[in-house]
Amino acid sequence: MKEDYIDPQIYELYDEYCHTEMTRRQFLNRASALVVVSGSAVAMAEALLPQYAKAQMVSFTDERIKATYVEYDSPGGSSGKMRGYLVKPTGDGPFPTVLVIHENRGLNPYIEDVARRAAVEGFLALAPDGLAPIGGYPGNDDDGKVMQKSLDRDKLFSDMLNSAKFLKAHELSNGKIGATGFCYGGGVVNKLAVVMGSDLNAGVPFYGVAPPTEEVAKIQAPLMMQYAADDPRVNATQEDYRKALEANNKNFVMYNYEGTRHGFHNNSTPRYNKEQAKVAWDRTVSFFKEHLI
Fold first, then answer.
1. Residue 173 needs a FRET pair 20 to 30 A away by CA distance; which of 42, 96, 180, 253 works?
2. What is the distance between the alpha carbons of residues 103 and 209, in angstroms, rounded to a whole number?
3. Do residues 209 and 235 touch, judged by C-beta distance below 8 A?
4. Quick one: fold of 61-292?
């Protein structure tokens, strides 16, 4: 038995925990009631909880970038104001831009790190915090997902759309914008592609729910969709999305990564698949360089 083995039942319970109002205590209590093949179910459950400090790939003090928090207007959003994490590469610009959209729990350290990774590749990156209008990411995912669920979804999307507009018009922008996002953020990328039309220059959603098929005709941006192989909830929307994109002659590619689960790019938990995450990220960077530079 491998030391890092986690029973599939625990993975399924963790996915439910991430996408519902289940608390951490409830997650661990339910795990304790499961019978697993080997080891402790509670220990397996605890191992899946994020460890952000150990997962950092690019330090905020990295000399190749400069990171800061910025505030900007967001008409029609949750409060009319927004805050995001802006990371610029060294140099004077202008730079191609990438919007990095968080999961269903606000701007946590993993998403900030993804923004820094994008900046290291030469992009001006903005990671908006959808929770900013109600106090910002609270420092833990449990409270973060409760806060995000409390927001009006349409207003939250307006905050993401306004973040894209702010970034594209930034004085350091070359006028082209790509968007990537994870889980909730992946769904937002798909919706931005519908709403922004040709104003979005490229989109890369990671395990994001597809938009309604009747809206696919509005998409103008080239898209690269990243899917986990074992992700029934999200993948249930994949095939209809593919058919709608093909029927409307859209520029897109879809990848399914073998041996992965929902969240495989997030290196703060054991769902992370190092090899496949690297392939997916390298493809993402190449795709953005192709369409934004």
1. 253
2. 12
3. no
4. Rossmann fold (3.40.50)
